[in-house]
Amino acid sequence: MPANRLPTAAGCSLHDAGQDWDVIRVPRQLGFGAMAILGPRCGAVLEHPHKPAIYYFVSVGTAAEWEVDGTTAIGEGGTLTIPPTRCTAAVGPHWLVCPGDSDWLTDARALQAALEDCSTADACAELSA
Questions:
Q1: Where does residue 77 fall: left (phi above 0), alpha (psi -120 to 50 degrees), or beta otherwise?
Q2: Pairing between strand 53-58 and 6-7?
Q3: Burial of 120: CB neighbours in 10 Å, binned 0-12, 13-18, 19+
Q4: Which residue ranges of the chain lie beneath pLDDT 50?
Q5: CA–CA gap between residue 8 and residue 86 (Å, rounded)
Q6: Per residue in 80-112, pLDDT tens?
Q7: 9, 93, 123 from 46: Cα distances, Å
Q8: What is the pTM of this model?
Q9: Are the beta carbons of 118 and 30 closer than 8 angstroms?
């Protein structure tokens, strides 16, 4: 797990993006569809229940080149609240796919392809159901 910047409530901590990873914020329904397509190729995935999005961790530098409509890349200068590594309770930020000890990342090209495959509402709804 990356070194934390600032502790927060419930064992969560605030981490800087652009150091160990960049993050791609994806609308919830599209993100669930992409998770279904990626299957075991999916790295850690974070959900924040108060935001209609899920977060994929990708290699540093990805945010600078990311151009997928409807998604937001968060790189250097951005932060993200990270829960403990096995927190799956939906009360606050929690993991949909828990990170491994050293393997947090989803391949950005695979994520982009999965998002493109799931770009229509109908396809995405079928995959995430």
A1: left
A2: unpaired
A3: exposed
A4: 1, 3-4
A5: 16
A6: 999 988 888 877 899 999 998 778 999 999 999
A7: 17, 7, 22
A8: 0.85
A9: yes
